[in-house]
């Protein structure tokens, strides 16, 4: 560690005062204040540095947590998502979908998927309110992130999350500077990468010394494989007011706009080993409609494939449709004020806005009953009958060719539009110098609107509006209207997700402050309100949005439409409520430079919106209520013990953990471009899971100009139950999947198909991981960094019959200080190479039950083979180089 860095560290400790320790990774202002005591602020250096080159800090909490700082973040790929920068910490495995982070990625933390890991930004929860997804491509510009942390296996006592059973990732935005100035960072790189970041600080102004900044960034580059571009625009601002004596208030905003083309994630293991790399089509032109002819866009579109060939078919795989637009924004406040000498109030209010989709393509007949409620139109059209159909003046001419006989492609994005209001407040009472009580309340109120309003494609085969008929800022006439004035849509529902949570925790210090005990409990009360405005196919969550009249009402209450034997459940509303009491206990003992700790915590994940919309009504001779999905909340119990060592040259930590997971659900990416859930996460329940392992990390300052960091993770995550996979068999009659006893099977003859998963490893979970980083500053101007991550092989199926290989990825960075060269303050040039060795490995795995044909292990059902399906995945980015020029003035 250089003398310059030691001086910076000491200056930071002096400047930030009592907030320095807690600012490391606090989930909220209340947790920040609760973790901080005056005697934790070390200026003399008697307990060593808080950080060594930003890769690891001496954590102030008695549980597993890892934190990186801006010093390491700024050495990573410019514009990169913070999740990639955190990829060095133990327990976390993040696979990035492209070299710059704009396409998102896949999180695994101690074997938990990203939907079960909380993600927070200045205390604001970012996981989607409906399905808990984390959108890693929409995170804050890295230049503005002061610190980022990963809490492995648990959350904070006041965490306002209904789903973070696997841990918490949180990052803190930087404060405005005391001095007026401008920062400019520009980058160019592989795949026509271009990025510019600009920050302007006001410095202290006004009678109270208020500070503020405003920033903007723009990024644009090509996909590393396949056609399409990725574009990102972001604005940020922050206003900060120091109120003295540790009191402060801040107000900030973030706006992020992404316009991304998807990568093709349909490679299977055979193709991977053979070197075949499928991608999306370059162009796709719909056929020109001909009056009186049955045009079919399912077979007659002109396609230019990724490999350059010309084919006829459907535009379902066209890159112009496989897109991921999003507009997100938030306003967030942080307020901390000492009411009395021993009483502090913190308040964190927030508002978030999201509109996003993953594209969508649907082939629709022009006489579809959702466009024209005339049952005479159900007959298949032919060229001979097309004129007759015109005489009847039925259907809707979607392609403008003068007839209504065609099969036409529509752009049908599944939009999610969220407005989310939140507040988290704490009252902290120092009963004595060594005993503290904190009471917290949080409210998270999410309005979740999900629509699929169709639009026509233009003549080039592109959607005229990326949000389709939703188009909240534009012309509603983009929608496709039926003959009765209603518009065609693939889904239409509105949900509320409401969390009210109370928490209480006690922190006490004993034996000359060497022993710290923290006992907390949180009580979440969660409510989901569902409003399904469309019909739902019985036994599924598949919507059928129509205004056509019901043809038949069945005795059980289900309905059917003319020419359609499917049973549907009419639009409905339903409320679900969940609550629990969750303990959180930590104990730590300091032996000078050494610290021992232990923790126990319980977490809950309540069911997701999409799962709850799955409904069923069994056959009956009388009307009966709708049976809603009986999915239960997931519960985890996490135990861990650990050790930390801190000296002037070494920071080290190690922990062993055991996790019991009840009713576990695995989320996996749907890579099928023809699926309605394409590029969204779908769930399957894998029952009880037990995970155990250990993690360790060490940072060592060998000399003033050399430091090393290394971490290792071992994880054994094992399924505890065999799985019922939903298929049924009738041994007596030899009938598979009987819908009712009328097929010749009585109910007691039907038996579930069971596959053997007990004792198998959890999918996408490497048993071993290891990371390494070396920093070397050979001169005052030049600094070099080299880092590597090795990830063990990963199973793609629950029965462990397919596995993808292990991989190692190496990154390099070099920075040269130009201050003395050009006399410009803080000017530098930086060179980054990611994936230096050009390693290729699978990412974004679409995991499943089995890849090969397997046998049913249910002894009552005989031996009934279950066909397998090879799993698909995407590919990581190749070697990528970026050159960056930065300065401040």
TrEMBL record:
<feature type="domain" description="TonB-dependent receptor plug">
    <location>
        <begin position="62"/>
        <end position="159"/>
    </location>
</feature>
<keyword id="KW-0408">Iron</keyword>
<dbReference type="InterPro" id="IPR039426">
    <property type="entry name" value="TonB-dep_rcpt-like"/>
</dbReference>
<keyword id="KW-0410">Iron transport</keyword>
<feature type="signal peptide">
    <location>
        <begin position="1"/>
        <end position="26"/>
    </location>
</feature>
<keyword id="KW-0812">Transmembrane</keyword>
<keyword id="KW-0998">Cell outer membrane</keyword>
<keyword id="KW-1134">Transmembrane beta strand</keyword>
<dbReference type="InterPro" id="IPR012910">
    <property type="entry name" value="Plug_dom"/>
</dbReference>
<dbReference type="Pfam" id="PF07715">
    <property type="entry name" value="Plug"/>
</dbReference>
<keyword id="KW-0813">Transport</keyword>
<dbReference type="GO" id="GO:0015344">
    <property type="term" value="F:siderophore uptake transmembrane transporter activity"/>
</dbReference>
<protein>
    <submittedName>
        <fullName>Iron complex outermembrane receptor protein</fullName>
    </submittedName>
</protein>
<keyword id="KW-0732">Signal</keyword>
<dbReference type="Pfam" id="PF00593">
    <property type="entry name" value="TonB_dep_Rec_b-barrel"/>
</dbReference>
<comment type="similarity">
    <text>Belongs to the TonB-dependent receptor family.</text>
</comment>
<keyword id="KW-0472">Membrane</keyword>
<keyword id="KW-0675">Receptor</keyword>
<dbReference type="InterPro" id="IPR036942">
    <property type="entry name" value="Beta-barrel_TonB_sf"/>
</dbReference>
<dbReference type="InterPro" id="IPR037066">
    <property type="entry name" value="Plug_dom_sf"/>
</dbReference>
<dbReference type="InterPro" id="IPR000531">
    <property type="entry name" value="Beta-barrel_TonB"/>
</dbReference>
<dbReference type="GO" id="GO:0009279">
    <property type="term" value="C:cell outer membrane"/>
</dbReference>
<keyword id="KW-0798">TonB box</keyword>
<keyword id="KW-0406">Ion transport</keyword>
<feature type="domain" description="TonB-dependent receptor-like beta-barrel">
    <location>
        <begin position="280"/>
        <end position="836"/>
    </location>
</feature>
